[in-house]
Write a structure and sequence with these properties.
There is one protein chain. Helix 1 packs across helix 2 and helix 4 runs antiparallel to helix 5. The protein has six helices and no strands. The chain has a domain of 60 residues. By secondary structure, the chain is mostly helical. The chain is 60% helix and 0% strand.
């Protein structure tokens, strides 16, 4: 069995390390919930696609269904902390 140095693993794979440690990181849908309008939602989708957090296919799906999902504006800013979604 392969054994890893914990600190080396944390530096090499920070996102995976946080997931394994139980941290709940906000997703693109969490960010869409705090948008005020469709224009902001499309900017968020473009950003997540540009940085590689979501695939082009998923981004296309979100763009075409952003109004049908009904999640825009369903959460206020700051709810992440109250819900315990950040460290």
């Amino acid at each position: 069995m392969l054994e890893w140095n914990r600190e080396k693993f944390r530096r090499m794979f920070p996102n995976l390390f946080h997931e394994l440690e139980g941290a709940k990181l906000p997703t693109v849908l969490d960010h869409l919930e705090v948008c005020k309008n469709e224009k902001e939602a499309l900017e968020i989708i473009d950003y997540f696609e540009r940085i590689g957090e979501i695939t082009p296919q998923y981004a296309s799906f979100l763009r075409s269904n952003v109004n049908r999902l009904g999640i825009i504006g369903t959460r206020k800013r700051g709810d992440y902390e109250r819900r315990g979604l950040v460290d």
